[in-house]
Amino acid sequence: MPISHSVYCLAFSSCLLMLVYFKKPDCRGLRLIAEAWDCGGLYQVGMFPHWGIWSEWNGKYRDTIRQFIKGTDGFSGAFAECLCGSPNLYQESGRKPWHSINFICAHDGFTLADLVTYNDKHNLANGEDNNDGENHNNSWNCGQECQ
């Protein structure tokens, strides 16, 4: 029987094995980076249990920066928060700005060149009929769709 997202999160955030392991002296100075989402769609940016050593890929930073650069109305406040280390996500749990791994493009196949070249994804060449990858990339081609 599959474990629900809420059960998984509860189990992970209070996992004794993780707590004990990361309190070991060998782990002093250790820094780990989490992707705070899973393949089932759970998105927990800012809520991942950090135990003082985990930072997170900040996908909300990515989305906000892309929207702001694109000129989407209403993103100047969120943009300012991003530049200040996303305190809306991390400050309440005692984390600092360096716990947010800020990025605009990463390892998921959508490059910085794609971001400014296309308004929509172009994944036809890989045989997936353009059904793979994210549809909501917040990309902007500056008025000229390129190849």
From TrEMBL:
Keywords on record? Signal
Signal peptide limits: 1-22
Origin superkingdom: Eukaryota
SUPFAM superfamilies given in the database record: (Trans)glycosidases (SSF51445)
Q: Which organism is it from?
A: Heracleum sosnowskyi
UniProt-recorded name of the protein = Uncharacterized protein
Positions of the region Disordered? Answer: 126-147
